Amino acid sequence: MADEHPRLTPRAREIAAAARALVEEAGAEALTMRSLADRLGIKAPSLYKHFPDKSAVEVELIAQQLAETAAACEAALDRSPGSLTALVDAYRSHSLAHPHLYRLATERPLPRHALPPGLEERAAEPLLRVCGHDVELARAVWAFAHGMIILEIHGRFPEGVDLAVAWKRGIEAFQR
Fold first, then answer.
1. pLDDT in tens, 120-146
2. At CA 100, angle to CA 98 and CA 106, rounded to 5?
C-alpha cells in the first residue's frame, strides 16, 4: 500500500485507511475527525498533524477512488482494446463494489485544485481513448454510466428491472 500513496507519510496512510473504512462501512456522513480519531484510538487533534482538516482527508479518498477506477478501466482496455462495453463494465463493477466511496467522489464538486497532478486526466483517458478523443461523446457516455450507477446505488430502479438490458441498450446507442 505504501507504493500506492507515496505522497503520504506512513501515519497519514494509516489515517486515510481508517477514514476509508469508515466511509466504506457507513458513508461519507460517518466521517468526522472525531469518529476517525476514535477508530484509530487517538485524540482528534493528533489528526491535524497529518491532514489540515476533514476536507483534506476526503480529497485523499477521492484521489484513491479516481486512481483505482483508472486502473480498473485501463486493465479492462488491456484485456479488450477499444471495447466500450468492457470499459463501462469495469467502471460499473468498481463503483458498485465501493458505493459510498463512489458517492463521496461524485456527488459534490470535484476538488480539482487539491488532487494529485494528472490524476483527473488519467481517470478520463481510457474513456477518451475508446471515444476516439471526442470529448463531448466521452462526457455523454460518462453521464449515462454515472446516472445508471447512482440510480442503482440508491435503489431507484423498480424490482425486476433487467439492468443488463438497460446498460446494453445504452451502450449500443453510443456506438451507432
1. 999 999 999 999 999 999 999 999 999
2. 100
